[in-house]
Every structure is written in C-alpha cells, then in structure tokens.
# Entry
Amino acid sequence: MPNPMRRTIAWTRKHGLVTPGLAAAILACVATAAAAKPPGAEAVMIRMIACEGEGVRMEVYLPLSVDRHMRGGQSVIGYYALDLTDVNKGKPLEPVRVTLSTDEKTVTVDQYLRGLPPTRIPVAGGTVDFDQRFAKHAKCGPFQSQDPNFGN
# Structure
C-alpha cells in the first residue's frame, strides 16, 4: 500500500506549492532585516548625573545632543538607571523627564511612568531621595560631571 504522505509531497512538488511558501518565508525574513535600522544619533546617551546611596547607584542619562547645551527651563527625555546589581536585581532603565530650572541651579528628574514625586537635585550636587524603597539619601555629584570619582 502506497504511503499517503509520499503522494502528498509528490503532488505538492508537482504543482509547485512548496516554492511559493518557501519564497514567502524568505521574503518575510529579508523584509524584516531590511526594515530594521540602527538607532540614529538621537539615541546616543551620556551620563549626566551619578548618585550613590546605601548599596545602590543611580544614574541619569540624556541624549548626547544636549550635553553641555541644556538651557534653563528646558526639558528633555532621558533615562534613569537604578543599579541594583549588588542585590542581584539588575540595572533597569526607565524613561524620565529631566528639566533644568530657569535659574540653572536645580535639575528635576521626573519618573513619570511610576508616578513618583519629582526629585530635585542641585546642579552642584547634593543629597536627595529618589525612590523610598531603594534610593534614599543618595549623594549626587554635579550635573554634567563626567568624573566617576566625584565623591572621593
């Protein structure tokens, strides 16, 4: 008795149904690869604020395009990193709204996705509270400081 699966494969090959399916799969892969683009220059971020708390580190990253060119009253979207690596919880990145006060003496970090109250950090640096669970009494270095040893 002939194998019904062999007949189905032979019939499919004879009528060319395998080729269009294979072609469609290849086309889908090529189209997906062609649509994927590398991030543009606006995606390049630089650390603008670095803070240390009790066993935790916080960093705020802003687009490189505003590095040293942020004006008083200006707000930009950046990323807040809460480094919980030491307690084996990773380092999540969260979008934040960062505003430089009009007198350019305070930076406000608004963690708008989590509904936390905005954190105001003196431009010269200071001690602040970000998150009441992990990031209390964090010592922050100066805004736009790239010196990793600001507190030493």
User: Anything to note?
Assistant: Strands lie at 45-52, 57-63, 75-83, 93-100, 106-110, 119-122, 126-128, 138-140.
